[in-house]
Design brief:
With 183 residues, the chain is of the alpha+beta class. The protein has 4 helices and 6 strands. The protein has a 6-stranded mixed sheet with strand order 2-1-6-5-4-3.
Length: 183
């Protein structure tokens, strides 16, 4: 093989490796968000190294403790919530990476009359161990928050149209279809 072709092949391999790493990192961050929204402790924990340190405001803990505390906190103040990853920036250096992921979170109140919207960022340090990218450290930065009326969405109008309601257990409609991350 000509030297130029060898160099081009090596360059393409390096670029492909970078793209795969970025996608695996984003998949990991999405898995954590899905685990949080479904109150799936195993799925949430599967996005973190066992020795990870997670900081949500004053709550600083390892993975099992933080998963329980987050579920308890969400359950005490909301009936449903979604954490949507939007802008994602990532810098990869070998088997280590730093990521900043913007989050738009919606949390419906327990009585479903109001919804809180939050703009936040996840600041993550990730490491690749045993061929898996997982979060080693996370800090959450809250940028803004607002509340609004959600009563129309939870009215009989939507129920009459046949929209299913999500749940925090295996009865959630997403668990009926394959391909969604579980662990």
């Amino acid at each position: 093989m000509p030297e130029a072709a060898v160099g081009e092949l090596e360059h393409l391999r390096a670029e492909l490796s970078q793209l795969l790493a970025r996608q695996q990192i984003l998949d990991c961050i999405h898995r954590a968000a899905r685990g949080l929204d479904r109150h799936d402790v195993e799925l949430l924990a599967s996005a973190f190294h066992p020795d990870a340190v997670v900081r949500y405001g004053k709550i600083i803990d390892g993975v099992p403790g933080i998963a329980r505390k987050l579920n308890e906190g969400h359950a005490s103040s909301s009936r449903a919530h979604t954490h949507n990853i939007t802008t994602h920036n990532c810098r990869i250096d070998g088997d280590s990476a730093e990521a900043e992921s913007y989050v738009l979170a919606g949390l419906a109140s327990g009585d479903r009359t109001t919804v809180r919207l939050l703009g936040a960022r996840y600041l993550d340090v990730l490491d690749k161990r045993n061929d898996r990218w997982l979060i080693s450290a996370r800090e959450v930065v809250i940028e803004w928050s607002m509340s609004g009326d959600a009563s129309a969405f939870y009215s009989e109008t939507f129920n009459a149209r046949g929209y299913p309601t999500g749940s925090w257990d295996g009865s959630d409609p997403s668990y009926r279809i394959g391909g969604f991350p579980r662990t």
